[in-house]
Amino acid sequence: DTYDLIVKNADIATSGDRYQADIGIRAGRIVAIAKDLSGEAGEVIDALGRLVTPGGVDGHVHLDQPTSDGAVFSDDFFTGTRSAACGGTTTVIPFAAQQKGHSLQEAVDDYHRRADGKAVIDYAFHLIVSDATHTVTREELPRLIGQGYTSLKIYMTYDDMKLGDRQIIEVLATARQHGAMTMVHAENSDCIGWLTEHLLAAGLAAPSYHGNSRPMVVEREATHRAIALSELVDTPILIVHVSGQEAVEQIHWARGRGLPIYAETCPQYLFLSADDLQPQGDDHAHGMRCICSPPPRDKGNQQVIWNGLANGLFTIVSSDHAPFNYHGPQGKRLAGEQAPFNQVPNGIPGVETRLPLLLSEGVLGGRIDIHRFVELTSTNPARLYGLYPKKGTIAVGSDADLVVWNLFEPGQEQVLSHAMLHSACDYTPYEGQALRCWPALTLSRGRTVWRDGVFTAQAGDGQFQPCLRPREPVTGSALAKWL
Ligand code: URP
Ligand code: ZN
Ligand code: ZN
Ligand code: ZN
Predict the structure, then answer these.
(1) What number does the ligand 1 atom closest to the CA of 185 have?
(2) Is the torsion defined by CA of 472, 473, 479, 482 positive or negative?
(3) Distance between terminal CA atoms of the chain?
(4) How far is the CA of 38 from the centre of ligand 4 (A)?
(5) What ipTM describes this predicted complex?
(6) Probe ligand 1: pick from 159, 320, 344, max atoms within 8 Å of CB?
(7) Which residues surround ligand 4, an ion (CB under 5 A)?
(8) 399 with 462: CB under 8 angstroms?
(9) Taking a C-beta distance cutoff of 8 angstroms, is the pair 49, 22 a contact?
(10) What is the pLDDT of residues 166-192, one digit of tens each?
């Protein structure tokens, strides 16, 4: 056969183009795109004029990470990547997290063991540098960057992860010299520590006080400091999980100075707010489900984040999938029903709902156009993390990672529920959200991994993707509306 598979009558949308064509796939790659492709094909799937986008690239996912407090992430590399695939994501970039006192190489070896034979879609790794010794910054990091680990995350808070400013500078200098992308978790650790101590001393320990322990100024200050360190060292950074206006203002200010400051936000800052940390009925622990850092803010801040998607401020949208079960002893209630907020594991699930929520409320809701959606969720993460153009677009030569979408007519919206999802996490924070779309079909390197509600991939089908050096992201003006 000329092709293993032809996807006919696709309404193809990339970050730059929109057109109708057939897509010819051989050996996992796109080998032809044309109107009315002819030639023998092992299988033909008629997309019937439906919207087809590049598979999602989720550049911020936590899978099977050991924790310092004994909490256990709900998803391993099988359940986490299964969940991703069913929601239209075909590449995830989880973290290989260094533990203090250990080498980066140990982390890399450990996470390869965790992923190998389990992932159902392709994956790369970011490094988390938590112990920036000279051996790490001068030997290990340069070697690993050269071996395809070209992005790293650093933390300004969390006792087991955080780096001081001097260490951050050392890491940024290495990233500059060797061409890596540095992601920064920007929250001021000492502010959080002081506020937490005083809240707990005053008996204010319920889940909702998590938000009070990390007000916007905590994120604003650290965002500004990260920008300053990036400017000092003269190297780009990406500020992860930006939650609201004051951090957005800092990034906007930095861009005005011509600094290469990139920014990520996540669905939780568009769809959740401080209200979601409140008790529900007699379930006093309910708010634990939405404890993540930075915390969800208020409606005004949600609007600022939407504006930043529309106006080009944000570079990527990732899930920050960090799932802990609500029921059972190893997740959110690790320290019990009445646990003070500072003993609740931070993070929420979202790898499967990222694309459907953003396509529903962003594109079909008229806030961003389809090209900006593809740019934020696929093309830009692929570019920033050195996977483009293998990932992140629909083009001849690219991997055949595609999503064929079902769009639901107005009045035919579906209600998002945990029962639909394929993560091992026992809840979704987005329960009850109206959905205007869901993937009808997800292809990962030409293999069907999700079709008409059925998951069809095998553990181990996913391959490790070594990353090239970062490329500049694209930024559409994105003000035109779709349709
Ligand atoms: O609360 C969060 N976001 N947990 C995941 C780890 C991180 O900081 O991204
Ligand atoms: Zn030094
Ligand atoms: Zn973080
Ligand atoms: Zn994270």
Answers:
(1) 8
(2) positive
(3) 37
(4) 45
(5) 0.93
(6) 320
(7) 320
(8) no
(9) no
(10) 999 999 999 999 999 999 999 999 999
